[in-house]
Write a structure and sequence with these properties.
The protein has helices spanning 8-26, 40-51, 55-68, 78-90; strands spanning 28-33, 70-76, 95-99. The protein is an alpha+beta fold. The termini are far apart.
Length: 100
């Protein structure tokens, strides 16, 4: 009988841990927060220009932001989302990055 030094359970656990680490490293969302200052038109225009949303997608996001208080408008890697967050903040729109 052949004996292995590492159990299957340990191998699976290591694989899962590695996968989770990779997801956490690259998983990030750009969240836009509702306020009483910015108009729908401004938020929609900003999402189109900054996040490259279609007009319809930006309008849907703006409605969700308005009714829910916040919404994840984009998902991706931090280095791609960080400049978008900064551009939205520069336009006076509340935006944060959250890590998955």
């Amino acid at each position: 009988m052949i004996e292995f030094s590492t159990s299957t359970e340990e191998i699976v656990k290591e694989d899962i841990d590695q996968l989770l680490d990779e997801l956490l490293d690259s998983g990030c969302i750009l969240v836009v927060h509702n306020d009483e200052v910015n108009t729908f038109e401004w938020v929609i225009q900003s999402l189109v220009e900054v996040c490259k949303h279609s007009a319809q997608q930006a309008e849907q996001c703006a409605m969700i932001i308005h009714f829910k208080g916040k919404y994840a408008v984009k998902e991706g890697e931090e280095e791609k989302l960080k400049p978008m967050r900064e551009a939205l903040v520069d336009r006076g729109i509340g935006a944060t990055l959250e890590y998955l």
